[in-house]
Write a structure and sequence with these properties.
Layout (H helix, E strand, L loop, with lengths): L7 H15 L18 E6 L2 E6 L9 E6 L2 E6 L6
Antiparallel strand pairs: 1-2, 3-4
């Protein structure tokens, strides 16, 4: 029977993309380069409702679309090269 060496570090490395997604770094490659925009978001409740603040540097308000459907908040937009 052959002896096989187990390398727990390689198994942890295989989980890294999933961990990045859970902690809000889904828009980065393993080298840290951004592949999409995953902006910082702050959300909190007030007496009158829910407040959501999103940092979108370089984006104009008219280039951002905000919608709510089936209880899911969606914020989308595209940053052009002229902004």
């Amino acid at each position: 029977m052959a002896v096989m060496r187990w390398d727990p570090w390689s198994e942890l490395a295989a989980l890294q993309p999933d961990v990045n997604q859970v902690f809000g770094r889904a828009g980065q490659t393993s080298t840290g380069r951004a592949t999409g925009l995953v902006p910082p978001i702050d959300a909190y409740r007030t007496e009158s409702g829910l407040v959501v603040r999103v940092e979108l540097p370089g984006m104009r308000p008219e280039d951002v679309e905000v919608s709510v459907s089936d209880g899911m908040l969606t914020i989308s937009g595209e940053k052009g090269t002229d902004t």
